[in-house]
Amino acid sequence: MDTDSLHELFTFKSIFEGLEDAVICHDLDQNISNWNPAAERLFGYTKKEMMGKTIFSLMSPEYHTEQEQMIKDLLQGGAVNHFYTVRRARTGKQIPVFLTLSPIRDKNENIIGVSQIVRNVTKEKETEQQQAVWSAIIEGSEDAVISKTLDGIIITWNKGAENIFGYTEKEAIGKHISLLIAPDRLAEEDRIIASIKRGEKVDHYQTVRIRKDGAELQVSLTVSPIRDGDGEIIGASKIARDITAYIQAEQALEKKAKQLLILNSIGKNISEKLDVNAILQKVTDATTNLTGAAFGAFFYNKVNSEGESYMLYTLSGVPREAFAEFPMPRNTAVFHATFSGEGVVRADDITKDPRYGKNDPHFGMPKGHLPVVSYLAVPVLSSSGTVIGGLFFGHPQPGVFLEEHEDMVVNVASQAAIALDNSKLFEEVSELSRKKDEFIALAAHELKTPLTSMSGFLQILQKNDLEGINKMFVEKSVRQLEKLTVLVNDLFDISKVQAGKLQFNFELFDLSLLIEEICETFKHSVPGREFITVLEPRLIVKGDKMRMEQVITNLVANAVKYAPGSPKIDITAAGKQNEIIVCVKDYGPGISRENQAYIFTQFYRVTNDEHHVSGLGLGLYITREIIKRHGGRIWVESEPGNGASFIFAVPQA
Amino acid sequence: MRGKVVYVLEDDADISDLIAYILCEAGYNVEQCGTVRKFNEVVTRSLPDIFILDVLLPDGNGLEICKQLRTDPVTRNIPVLMMSANKTRRDIESFGCAVDFISKPFNIDHFRQRVDQYV
């Protein structure tokens, strides 16, 4: 062997041993004659172990024929390149490989053996399998999985896409993605592609896409960039999920919540109201809203349930003029069930109802009537079971009113009935109360007429030079008449307070001076009691002087009357933080806590077993009303056994 | 000197007599009318120095009469004193009768002084 050949041999050997791929040589009897380190790594056998062994030990028996065939092909001058097969390692593991077989020839060009290059393609195989899995997933996905170029041309289209959008793979591939986009949303696609070009993923983008049949679809899009091996963005993959059902469910939920809110608020709303019209309007608006009706009406029976006496009361969804031309609904076949209280009428198309169009003169809706197809009518029954009205709803489309709408309206109708009953009761009570006030005013007037002449004549008698017992009796009579006058005046005032007609004439005056004058009068008329005044000078209020005099007189007179054992009565007045505080304090028996709570209410009188004190129980009620009308407040402070203080505060002018 | 003349329009006979008594004692000549009809007859015949009018009357309203008296040039300068058991001075004023007022029942001295101040 010359030097050159030797050199070449070593070079080959070096390559042979350094190769990443396994290289195995064997003779034509398949006996292994060479085995490189890569083969050792791949199969787990050392060269020493394998030398002389057949190549068949590297494969499962089912591959033997294949191996023999390959050798045969090779001997006949064929080539084996990148032949895919499976080999077995020492551990028994099956290894996917590519084989490249080359003949080994002698000097005479006779084939004496074979060299096999065995490339482990486990990794490639795995990738391939993964791809298969992915395609299976993509193909099986219910979501639409679409890929497209950066120009928007569709490259792949899965089964899900076909199902969701209605186009087959064949129809879609090669088309522009705008196939699925409504013209007014094309700008969206530009924005999405711009994000993709920046390498940004678009996540859960909710939008609308168009199906092949033209129907709109609510979809959620997730779009990701597709990169080539160099990381260059070459397209976009898009997953579109049909969320129409989800959106519908969400909207239904939202609607339900809104309905609940209306239902809750209406109960509260109408129970707070006592005005019939306000209740009717509220109920009409709410139920029209709840049912999704185009228009609603509440016919309220103001008179009786004779059948014909219904009145159009409130409307919703249409202006009043829309019904102004029509007479009140009559007791026709369609309306009968409602107006007689028989039950709810709900029709998907009332014009197809057997009861429809049976009555003279219109035989159906009068001309110009709002177009009613869907119809819902619910009677409103009072607690006594009488029909007090009916709620009617209409819609120009058929099948709008569902059972749930019926249930809601029935629910609201029963609440409305209660509110309307209350309102009626309130009207009756108000009317009674008004009559009572009228009566009191009349009675007071009638009482004052004899009082005037009696008091006048007694005063004349008093002027005669009466003596002894006559003088005393006349004086007593005059005093009793004065008391009677006060009582009648109180009665008269109370009727005015109740009717909200107590009039006030506000002017600026010195409250301190007024109190001083009143106390002077008491000192003269009630001898034997001490009236001690501590008054801050110049306490200016803006008030009704006459009414204020009534307040102070009443408080001092009460102290005299209800604290007969109190030797003195303290009257104080002082300014304090923009207010004038006036206090009338007695040293009598005081007032129990229980009585303090009621003392300012109408007709309430402190019950006292020890002495009976006359009165109607109106004085403090009127007093409080007057103070309230002056923007002030009044209260009592008392410890039983330690007297009572009546205190009021009014704003200082 | 002839006593001053007072026309009293009051339907309650006792009150009317009471007023007549008080004012006659004080030297006035009192003409008592129980109805608006009689009052109108009296007024067309001659005029007094002062009118004293009740509000509620069987055949009319004293406030209406007061208004008429105040607008008629012949009577507009004759003082009017309104009386009422139910009305207040403010009621009278809000009706448009800016005249003096006394509420029933009244103190007789006070009543006489009111009349005295006008004549």
TrEMBL record, chain A:
Positions of the Histidine kinase domain: 442-653
Subcellular location: Membrane
Lineage: superkingdom: Bacteria
All copies of domain PAC, residue ranges: 80-133, 203-255
Record keywords: ATP-binding, Kinase, Membrane, Nucleotide-binding, Phosphoprotein, Transferase, Transmembrane, Transmembrane helix, Two-component regulatory system
EC number(s) on file: 2.7.13.3
Database matches in CDD domains: HATPase, HisKA, PAS
Organism ancestry: Bacteria, Pseudomonadati, Bacteroidota, Sphingobacteriia, Sphingobacteriales
Pfam name, any one: HisKA
UniProt-listed InterPro entries: BphY/WalK/GraS-like, GAF, GAF-like_dom_sf, HATPase_C_sf, HATPase_dom, His_kinase_dom, HisK_dim/P_dom, HisK_dim/P_sf
GO annotation terms (biological process): osmosensory signaling via phosphorelay pathway; regulation of DNA-templated transcription
Protein name, as recorded: histidine kinase
Membrane topology category: Multi-pass membrane protein
A cellular component annotation (GO) from this entry: membrane
Native organism: Hufsiella ginkgonis
Parts of the chain that traverse the membrane: none
NCBIfam families (alphabetical): sensory_box
SUPFAM superfamilies: ATPase domain of HSP90 chaperone/DNA topoisomerase II/histidine kinase, GAF domain-like, Homodimeric domain of signal transducing histidine kinase, PYP-like sensor domain (PAS domain)
Catalysis: reaction(s): ATP + protein L-histidine = ADP + protein N-phospho-L-histidine
Molecular function terms from GO: ATP binding; phosphorelay response regulator activity; phosphorelay sensor kinase activity; protein kinase activator activity
Domain (PAS): residue spans on this chain: 8-78, 130-200
TrEMBL record, chain B:
Sections of the chain in a coiled coil: none
Domain Response regulatory, chain residue ranges per copy: 5-119
Gene Ontology BP annotations: phosphorelay signal transduction system
Protein name: Response regulator
Keyword Transferase: no
InterPro entries found in the cross-reference section: Bact_response_regulator, CheY-like_superfamily, Sig_transdc_resp-reg_receiver
Family annotation (Pfam families): Response_reg (PF00072)
Keyword line: Phosphoprotein
Residues with 4-aspartylphosphate modification: D54
Gene3D superfamilies: 3.40.50.2300
